[in-house]
Amino acid sequence: MFKKLLFLLLPIYINAQGYTSYFIGNSTNITTTTTSGVCLMGGATEHDNAMRWLLQRANGGDVVVLRSSGSSGYNNYLYEELGVQVNSVETLVITSVAGATNPYVLDKVANAEMIWFAGGNQWNYVSYFKDNALEDLLNNHINVKNAPIGGTSAGMAILSGKYFNAQNGSVTSTQAMNNPYHPNITLGYDDFLNPPFLADVITDTHYDNPDRKGRQSTFLARFKNDFNMNVKGVAANEYVAICIDEDGKARVFGDHPNYEEFAYFIQANCLNTEPIENIQAGVPLTWNFGGEALKVYTVPGTMTGEYFFDLSDWVTGNNVGGNWENWSVNAGVFNSNEGTPIDCTLSLSSNFNSEIQLYPNPFTTAISLYGIENAQITIFDVQGRTVWQQSITTNEKMDVDTLQPGLYLVRIVFDGKQVVKRMVKE
Which of 32, 79, 224, 307 could tie 89 with a disulfide, CB 3.0–4.6 Å? Predict the structure, then answer.
């Protein structure tokens, strides 16, 4: 009777310390040689083959699941249902900083060969795990021990150098694009977890339910505008997994073509060196650049993960199985269309760029080109619409009297190269 009473009280006592433990397997810790790997899942049910990929990198060691709510749902799944042998699986439900820094929790994380973050509320993970001993152990696990780690939904959201922390709650694409400084857009960077190949990336999940393309585009715009950071995006539909190996190859698992299941690898168009057309508080975002503000490689997820994106080389990587798209935001409205591969070889050195001049600026009725012989000139308004286009030679005047006063982007294409200039009509 006494032993039974003690057993019943034990979870209550542990929970009072800020965590609850659920354990299955061998209680004697073992140490194995692990292989680095990061697995990001979109937030619905786990993809079994992707999870097997991650478990195998633990090489039979001990698995720790970290979560801030829920209970032991992962234990049997990871320990016996996937057919990959591990020594143990322990779920730690952490509900406070005290729980995150409890010596028992720190010891279990320090000795884990694999760590998995469950879904939930990423602000709990940030506020409980950041700036303390647990954060240090997590980064040691990733970058010193070179051990596998992964997460789904909120767990995926925190596994990148830049992140949406959801401190004030979630934000929809519509809210974000219509006010890029919406109070719910709370971003963190370079101060929490640092998985390999994801230092300059912000992740997003549940990409198809609800549609989050617009909000992640807004996140990238904020980093570009506020901090002059060329942050990239990695995202997954909710039944999709992205598994990144030690070389940066990001394999995509899903059930395509039976379902529309994709991962997305998003970057600002390197040919556009101009500021974002319109980004300010309370005003709909315009980041257009002729409909090509963002270049996106869209990869279908398959059961075997044979298609991938090379995160070690965003410009000329050997990517397989996907298609390029162009994304943009026009007055708060998201747009996408079929695109072409990114080609930064068209970009010019800053010195050469400065030698090409359009004058006068500001202008009234006409402008002239100086610095090259022949070029194709295209002028876009702030909504990204083409308002003027013509082939011209050096010093040839361009009659632009019909343009309304305002800000314009002028694209100059010549000899297979491209320059963009910002000009104002008075």
Answer: 79
